[in-house]
Amino acid sequence: MNKFTLMIVDDERIIRDGLCSSINWEALGFKLVAVAADGEEALELFQEHKPEAVIMDIHMPDLSGLEVLEKFKCLHPETEVILLSGYDEFAYAKKGIQEGAFDYIIKLTMFPELEECLKKLYHVLSHKQEESRQYNELLMLKNDFTFQQYIKGYLSSELNRAAEKSYYSVASIWLPSLHPLDVNRLSQIKIPLKMMLKQENRYIYIIFIKENDEIQLFHNKIIESIHLIESYLCDMMVTAYKIGIGSIKPYISEIPRSFNEAMKTTDYLRARDSANSTRSVLFYGSWQGQDTSTQFKMASNMHWVNWVYTGDTENLISWMKTVFAESCLNKNINVSDIKYLCFQIVAQFEKVTKVKKNETLSLNEFDSITDLEAPMLQIVKEQCILANRRFQLQKNESISSVKEYVDGMYTTNLNLEDVARQFYFSPGYLSSKFKEYTGMTFSKYLITKRIETASQLLAGTEMKIYEIAKEVGYSDEKHFSKLFTQLKKMGPREYRRHYK
User: Fold this and answer.
1) Kind of pairing between the strands at 53-57 and 80-85
2) Which runs of consecutive H residues, i.e. helices, occur in 76-109?
């Protein structure tokens, strides 16, 4: 198991010591490298150790956890931070997530939740590490390619030019349906550039390579190559397609960036033509997309958390569809931004449903915002069902607790407003749900409970009627007798004579 470096930051010694000694960091895939008692010390240790993960308290003297988080993200944006908060600091915890925190944990339930959070963080860091590994493999791409050229009979002088100035660009071709294209034949088209191809589902990916050339000349040759590829697609009776072309990069290490630009441009073309009925080609550099994504800006304020917690499928799905649609049209939002939002939503569902899902692993497979939408919406629909069930159960459990409280305190001066305030309900909501749960209004249930107890005392004791009235919560004997008569169809004295 890979070990990721981790630092703890908390001004309370008992919390620091508890975290250090109570968690088996090695088993979770982490190596504890530093412990800090305040924000200033944390910044010093952070620059020294550059940890991949940090667990940090929100509320600290001098520098708060949010201020330290901001500085961490400036120094090393890749570091993931888990915030520790109290129940009264939920607003700060949400702000921390907006500013790049990985998650937040409530201190009072810290240890069981923290281990689950660390497991999730380990998967995220492992994915980043895997992306880095793939990136390093991509660096070998050019060497492999030139080697293949060599064994095909190219002169060594051509190989030597591989070390000279080169340019790279990636094109992404999306087809509306699976098409039996002959990629080998496509690779044999005589274009003025070297290219490498890969076909995957509905996509054909092309890396254009040109060594020892001027950038404008390379751009013109890409245009010529795309025209030839389009001719081939027409010959193959492909009636609709989208071709997004990433910007030209001077270094092989920037091929992944050009690839992301190509995919983003393809998403944009697909979003503009929802019927997928036309042929479209667009260079990333020619895309003058405006910042129109108001819904994505709203994503950071976490208003959607309320829909997650109540399992509100309709509002959450509607909002997410708008986010995906606007994100495809916005040049400044990439698939990583949308994935991060999706991971946040999945994480909140896990908090609500208490069901651990490995959705982050499947979502990581997508390089297209458009392709990511359908599986994410399916996840949301399934999770909303679970969340709604749990929400309804929690509401019923809460009303059950109210009933138990009334059953124990009915002889005191109870009223709906005070009970609602104690259980954090509005009086109207409690009144409605209490009647739904018990079949009676709150006041009717309270009167019934008192009169039934009074009936037992009348039949089984020698207590005077005014004493019984006082015992069950009524200081006015006449009022008690009136309520008793309404419920039992006879007065207290008659009841006693009849049942004693």
Assistant:
1) parallel
2) 90-98
Q: How far apart are CA 492 and CA 497, in angstroms?
A: 9
3-state secondary structure (DSSP) of residue 371: helix
Residues near 20 by beta carbon (within 8 Å), at least 6 away in sequence: 8, 32, 35
Which tens digits make up the pLDDT trace of 58-109? 888 888 889 999 899 888 888 999 998 875 566 676 777 778 888 888 877 7
Question: Residue 424: left if φ>0, alpha if ψ -120 to 50, beta else—which one?
Answer: left
Beta bridge pairs of residue 83: 56, 104
How far is residue 356's CA from residue 346's CA, in Å, rounded to a whole number?
Answer: 10
DSSP state letters, 143-172: HHHHHHHHHTT--HHHHHGGGS-EEEEEEE
Sheet of strand 30-36: strand arrangement:
30-36, 4-9, 53-57, 80-85, 103-106
> Quick check: 201 and 146 in contact, CB under 8 A?
no
SS3 135: helix
Nearest-CA neighbor of 401 among 386, 420, 414? 420
Which residue type does 282 have?
L
> How far is the C-alpha of 43 from the C-alpha of 87, rounded, in Å?
26
**Coil vs helix vs strand at 287:** coil
- 170's tokens: 């990636």
- At 464, the amino acid letter reads K
What are the Cα distances from residue 227, in Å, to 174, 183, 230, 341? 16, 16, 5, 37
| DSSP secondary structure string for all residues of 372-408 | HHHHHHHHHHHHHHHHHHHHHHHHHHHHHHHHHHHHH
Sheet with 279-283: strands ordered across:
194-200, 203-211, 166-174, 241-245, 279-283
Q: Which amino acid would we find at residue 199?
A: Q
190 three-state secondary structure: coil
Per-position DSSP letters for 403-470, written without gaps between them: HHHHHHHTTS---HHHHHHHTT--HHHHHHHHHHHHSS-HHHHHHHHHHHHHHHHHHH----HHHHHH
Neighbours of 158 (CB within 10 A): 12
- In tens, the pLDDT along 311-357 reads 889 999 999 999 999 899 888 888 888 888 888 888 888 887 877 76
CB–CB of 110/16 below 8 Å?
Answer: no
| Token reading at 379 | 């996840």
